[in-house]
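Crash report, auto-generated. Payload:
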Amino acid sequence: MSDFINGSAGGSGGGCGKEGGCGCGSQSNSGSDIASAADFLETGQPQTRRGFMKAAAALAMTTLAPGITLFAVGGGSAEARPLDEAASSKVRWGMLIDASKCDDGCTKCVSACSTENGWKDNGRPDTDAQWIRAVTLKNRKTGATQTLPMMCQHCEKPPCVDVCPTGASFKRADGIVLVNKHTCIGCRYCMMACPYGARSFIHEPLEDQKDYAPRGKGTVESCTLCVHRIDEGRLPACVETCNAEAGGALMFGDLNDPNSEISKRIATYASIELRSGLQLNTGVRYQNI
Amino acid sequence: MTSMRIVKFILSIWIMVIGVSLPGQLLAAESSLLPSIAKGKGDKCVLPTEYMRRNHMDLLDHQRDETVLDGVRTKQFSLKGCVSCHAVKGGDGKAVTVKDPKHFCASCHNYAAVRVDCFDCHASRPGEKDQFGGLKSKPAGHDVAALKSYLHSGSQTSLRGRDK
Amino acid sequence: MARTTYRVLNGRGVTFWSIMALHALVILIGLGATYYMEHNGHIVTGMNNRIVWGMPHVFAIFLIIAASGALNVASISSVFNKLAYKSFARLSGLLALALLIGGLAVLVLDLGRPDRLIVAMTKYNFKSIFAWNIYLYIGFIVIVAGYLFVQMNRGTESWTKPMGVIAFVWRLVLTTGTGSIFGFLVARDFYDTAIMAPLFIATSFLFGLAFTILVLSFTCFTIRDQLMNKEVMNKFRDLLIIFILVVLYFTAVHHLNNIYITQHHGVEKFLLMDSPVYATLFWGGQIIVGSLLPLFILINKSLGSNRTAMTFASILILIGGLAQIYVIVIGGQAYPLEIFPGWDEISSSYGDGQIADYMPTLPEVLLGVTGISLAMFITGAALTILPFLPQPISDE
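Recovered output after restart:
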């Protein structure tokens, strides 16, 4: 109770305690040092104490194998921000999706997002909200097939932000495109305007929302890049799950930091924006489509 | 109008005024007509009760803009904070939602007939643990820092560190 | 030339009051439908995450376009000094106001959060054409009310021309804004074109005049033969023919342009050929019923100037107009977004790559119709209260 009056947080912010992007998981930290086990676990593994202790104990005995390090790196990283600090434009959060690693028929990112944020499949696909979906592509002429996840692309110049009459659809300083549901009047113009069909309208009264992801009837919503997790220094749920349980197609990080893993990957391997002709400079990029 | 009618008119207005304001004057008294508002956790709220009664909406309005638009997540005036402190347990031991008249916000708002808009979107009872079983409000690295200090210091400090 | 005098609608018999009662009943039912929609959420409508704007928006846009066009008759007299239309200026202004209020009511009542109208009126994102439209609509109401005031108030007639010019320019900006709601959307193949604005301007001329003729025909039973005399009917006939042809022109240019551009072949083929719903509405509704049939009626000079025939043609025009707006608003959304060019088969759990289905439900259709009834009710009520109708002067 006292922390409410003092205004201080229950735990301190700044998870890694390092400036800039999270450097943990890079090669220099691999080694037999037990404390490095802690560094490995900073990159977004499940936070249960039991799982944590198990992993720490196992690692205490072994050297970190390069594969595990890369695996952890593939998820990307975020750094927790102090509670009273506003988001800053020094950072631009983005995602890199390697479509070749997206397994056919896999929808783990979709389930992770829906569990995390509280939207569900009610059996009514026309009106059920979907923040992320697996899209299957087939080319009849060449026979090629492809699956990839699609969500809000967090454009730098979002059409949804341009058209919102009340300014409820907005871009936060660190690049995340959000809906301020206090101001949203539910006109759905942003849904007309989104070139990716990323937004959903809530068509019925909701109950038992997650307390960190409020959502309600009559407003519009879309992928928030798990902003509640990012502000705490964790990874978006889809990224975490894809790297822990599936092909590892999703990578998250700071696009403004040239040393972040995502920036290095984008600089090295070709990646595209969807509907790049629209010149929206999306924060979500795709490789190997 | 005769003077008698004027007097009657003024008297009736006066009676109406007193009749309407009386319940407010009796607010401190125990009465089955008035809402019974559950006590929150701890000995007091983040600000004095009288101030909160009048101004909680201003505080929440300001906080919500800061949180949504700027990403400032200070806990003092956060809605999550209010909900978790003021949670009221129902018959099944779990916190009640705003639909239940015992809910802290509902108990007063139902009486005052002011619709609460917040809980169309926000959860009206404290959240459960996240999908990985950890408590969500902990930033990443909390457990890690605790492990580090445990491993390095060799003492018997609790792994959970400072529990709030 | 004798001064025109104006008067309140009299001769209010059973017919008039039955029509008013019918409109009032429709409005009440529509409000009930709105409450049902708002309380249960839009799940009770046919609108979904792919077709986000449905029947209410079709009616609302239809009414808003008609509203700006209804001011035309007044503008012709005040701005372009054609005195033959001067006697209709007040009625035209009233109709413009009523139709706009009806359209706006439908738009507002369909919002996901209509209780947040105050937010919409106080928080503006000025990059949004929608936000500009809110100002344009409110401004239109104020300006047209002012325009009517200076005409009806003694001693301020000299302000009629300046107010008329302001109203005329304002309505052109307003209709351009309404068209740009669609024209500015880069996301969809059928929108994202500058021609939406002039198309809507042309359509507004047509709808506005059709509504004016309808209202004149149906509200003034006793005097309409004198009010709508031969000279006036000939002029209306000429105007209607021109307006139909101009709308056909802009529609043709819009579609032909898309047909030329290979990238847009998909949506054109869908709307004009493949889709049973939209192809029927376009060819059968807009073209045949809304344009060719009325043209056929109006082209014959003696038939075209007959009041009954022209009223019938106006009804056909408005039905075709509804079909036109339906194809634009809903057809444009039904066609999937082109996110992955080069891939033929696209599927997902969210309707990617698939034509979206839309089946309007009763509450949303009722809400749409309520807009029309509201507009007509306001018009009828105003006619009985204030002198909008010209006192016909015998030709001799």
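Post-recovery validation: The radius of gyration of chain B is 24 Å.
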